[in-house]
Amino acid sequence: xxxxxxxxxxxxxxxxxxxxxxxxxxxxxxxxxxxxxxxxxxxxxxxxxxxxxxxxxxxxxxxxxxxxxxxxxxxxxxxxxxxxxxxxxxxxxxxxxxxxxxxxxxxxxxxxxxxxxxxxxxxxxxxxxxxxxxxxxxxxxxxxxxxxxxxxxxxxxxxxxxxxxxxxxxxxxxxxxxxxxxxxxxxxxxxxxxxxxxxxxxxxxxxxxxxxxxxxxxxxxxxxxxxxxxxxxxxxxxxxxxxxxxxxxxxxxxxxxxxxxxxxxxxxxxxxxxxxxxxxxxxxxxxxxxxxxxxxxxxxxxxxxxxxxxxxxxxxxxxxxxxxxxxxxxxxxxxxxxxxxxxxxxxxxxxxxxxxxxxxxxxxxxxxxxxxxxxxxxxxxxxxxx
Length: 386
Prior knowledge:
Layout: E1 4-8, E2 11-14, E3 22-25, E4 40-42, E5 45-47, E6 51-53, H1 62-70, E7 76-78, H2 89-101, H3 108-117, H4 123-135, E8 141-144, H5 149-159, E9 163-167, E10 174-175, E11 190-191, H6 192-197, E12 203-208, H7 211-218, E13 224-231, H8 248-266, E14 272-277, H9 282-290, E15 295-298, H10 300-303, E16 313-314, E17 330-331, H11 341-346, H12 358-369, H13 374-377, E18 381-384
Parallel strand pairs: 6-15, 7-8, 8-9, 9-12, 12-13, 13-14, 14-15
Antiparallel strand pairs: 1-2, 3-18, 4-5, 10-11, 16-17
Helix pairs in contact: 1-4, 2-3, 4-5, 7-8, 9-12
């Protein structure tokens, strides 16, 4: 039974919970962290940690994607970002960081980001970025929006992409678009079920926020469903711009319930639930898995790494929207204190706040609760802070 509360005469709202509202409860059994596996596998692709990067130029260049893959995570290139629009991306990002550092006009960096994204998409540039990752021998993953998925996917397939991420602030099984004579050629609505059926590679789609939408996306044939809108301190989708918010603990649990329902409905087809939002520390990562996620999308924690191309700055991919930017540039580290990506993911760490050695801390949390793998850890006990 859903917990509904009255917010006024004739208007009710559901009571929901954030990751900060819950805690993991250890069982009577513990085990050594050396006996714990954080491995995650989607389709034929196996990773040593259940971590994907947010698809933003702040985090993922071709070289950063290679390093993430080498360290057991999955780097997702933004297929509509700067690597698909410019040849001198490093110079553009250096200019962006310099503008962001100058606080005289806090909106100047957003204006520059919009200008950089106004350049046309070049499938050849995008294909070259994908080929760089593929040739390094790590799994290649690229994010496209529902609007541009049909036009970009053929070039991505030719370049050797292995996992396609169809990702937007809010996504549904069918993206409906009304004709606009001022917006170029009219595009047919994207029917994800038809689109996915024609591909030979796994597709991850999202974000969603509730049981019904998650179940609809699972029925399209997606291999994974992203839950959440990437909410972070630097993202302003929630509240400020759209008035939308996702209570991540509740949303993950709802999507996990949809996963069980779809598993029964199909006689055994498992769709991965991937949490995307409010995951800033290793404790947040552990609680997201405990709520039912198979993996998690990370943003700000990875932006601090020395290999991140944003030079210590983080912004979500929606920050570059041409007329409704939904994210600010957030400085998470300076050049003097940027740890290596290996330190962020696997340690060692001198940080007592859970911002480094994310995978090692997840492994230790699982061990303290007595579980040996991620699927078992989804059954751990939880408490709610009231």
